[in-house]
Structure formats: structure tokens, C-alpha cells
UniProtKB/TrEMBL annotation:
Regions annotated as coiled coil: none
Identification of the protein by name: Glutamate-1-semialdehyde 2,1-aminomutase
PANTHER family the record matches: GLUTAMATE-1-SEMIALDEHYDE 2,1-AMINOMUTASE, GLUTAMATE-1-SEMIALDEHYDE 2,1-AMINOMUTASE 1, CHLOROPLASTIC-RELATED
Organism listed in the record: Haptolina brevifila
UniProt key word Coiled coil: no
Record InterPro entries: Aminotrans_3, PyrdxlP-dep_Trfase, PyrdxlP-dep_Trfase_major, PyrdxlP-dep_Trfase_small
Entry annotated with the keyword Zinc: no
Length: 231
């Protein structure tokens, strides 16, 4: 079985629950199946204490789930092109039988970036992921409050460290309001994507979140004024 803790490609990202994560593990054990987990976006970012080491964990472990193979990338090298496939002993022989190669696999820069990130996460322990979750929650709450203040119904979804905002009256593909809002927020100094979830970094600060909320407030106000003029 192949799955992911958060389906971030939906209009509103769908996050797995603890009963689902644990239930899949029980089914896999009953039928002798392997679980392959896509934590490319969520590992090191949306989990608990186990997500701060180069080991199976991340958001799935925080939900009480387990897997035989874990795919991770993104935060592993802080934007550098690197990924890793880690797993349990039972999956070692099967994984070793697969031939894979690449042109840039021996590049030292991504390896150095990954070591720096892993060492930084190891030094800060669970405080790093807790910090990201706290900032993400503050961002989501602030955006929801700001939107309501200016007459917009929005949904902030995804794990706190991977938030995403959608306007409730827009569909999954055409998002002119979200695109304009994000462009206005960007003009205020913070870059948010209208079609892709966002990422909170351990390097972000409360001041960064404050500046982003200030830019978002201005953007909601501008859209609200235009709505009144055109209405």
C-alpha cells in the first residue's frame, strides 16, 4: 500500500487521522502487505520528536502509524536537490534489487546541505518541529480572523507547518481571487502561493509571521474595498 499523511494537491489538503494511520498498519500486518509512505513534504516538518532524525517518523509516526519504506526530500536539504528512501529491515532485499541511477547523485553541495539540516534538527530536538507548528497555527488563525474581518469566507487547511488558504467560493482550478490576494500579499513583502501549500521553516520567527499577517490584512482590505466598489 502506498499512501501519504497529507494529500496536499487537493483544493483543500486532506490530512490523515490517527485511526486511519493505525488501521492501515493493522491491515498490512494481517494481509502481509508493505506500506510505502510518501513523506516528501511532511517529514522533518509536520511530525513529532521522531521526525527530527534521519529515521522513519514524521507526521505518520505522530499519528501512531508505521511503514516499511519512507520517501523523504524537500526539507532534507533545505531546497537543495536531494531525496532519501529509508525503511525497515524486512524491505531491504526488495529495495536493493531495484536498479536506480542518476546524473547528479554525487554532487557534494546537497549532501553538505542535508548534513547541516540534520545536525541542526538534532541539536534542537523536538523544539524545531514544535516551533514550526506553533508559527503555522498562529499564521492560520491570524489569516482566518483577518479574512472574516473583511467579509471573506476562507479555509486554512493542512498541517500547521504546511498551511494553505482557499477562498470558499472558488473552485479547485480557477482561483482569480486567491491569485490576486497572493499577489497583493507579495507586494507587501511575503510570498504565498495560490495553488500550492506553503512551508513554515524552523528559521522563521514570530516577527516573520507578524509581517505576513500585516501584508495579508492589507490585501484583504484592498480586495474588500474593490468588492464594494464593483458591487
Amino acid at each position: 500500500m502506498t499512501t501519504t499523511p497529507t494529500n496536499a494537491d487537493q483544493h483543500c489538503p486532506i490530512t490523515s487521522s490517527a485511526p486511519l494511520a493505525q488501521g492501515l498498519g493493522e491491515l498490512a500486518e494481517r494481509f502481509g502487505a508493505l506500506i510505502v509512505l510518501d513523506e516528501i513534504r511532511t517529514n522533518f516538518r509536520a511530525g513529532g520528536e521522531r521526525s527530527t532524525a534521519m529515521a522513519p517518523g514524521g507526521q505518520w509516526a505522530a499519528l501512531g502509524g508505521s511503514a516499511d519504506l519512507y520517501c523523504m526530500s524537500k526539507a532534507l536539504g533545505n531546497g537543495h536537490p536531494i531525496a532519501a528512501l529509508v525503511g525497515t529491515e524486512v524491505s531491504r532485499d526488495g529495495a536493493a534489487a531495484v536498479m536506480a541511477t542518476g546524473t547528479y547523485w554525487l554532487s557534494p553541495a546537497p549532501m553538505a546541505a542535508a548534513l547541516a539540516c540534520l545536525n541542526g534538527l538534532a541539536s534542537h530536538g523536538a523544539a524545531a518541529t514544535a516551533h514550526m507548528a506553533q508559527l503555522g497555527a498562529a499564521l492560520g488563525e491570524g489569516l482566518t480572523t483577518s479574512a472574516a474581518r473583511h467579509g471573506f469566507d476562507v479555509t486554512v487547511s493542512g498541517p500547521p507547518a504546511m498551511p494553505f488558504l482557499t477562498f470558499d467560493d472558488e473552485g479547485p482550478h480557477a482561483r482569480p481571487l486567491a491569485e490576486r490576494w497572493c499577489a497583493t500579499v507579495a507586494a507587501g513583502g511575503s510570498w504565498l502561493h495560490p495553488h500550492h501549500n506553503w512551508y513554515i521553516s524552523a528559521a522563521h520567527t514570530e516577527e516573520d509571521i507578524g509581517r505576513t499577517l500585516q501584508a495579508a490584512e492589507c490585501a484583504f482590505r484592498e480586495l474588500s474595498q474593490d468588492k464594494r466598489r464593483s458591487g
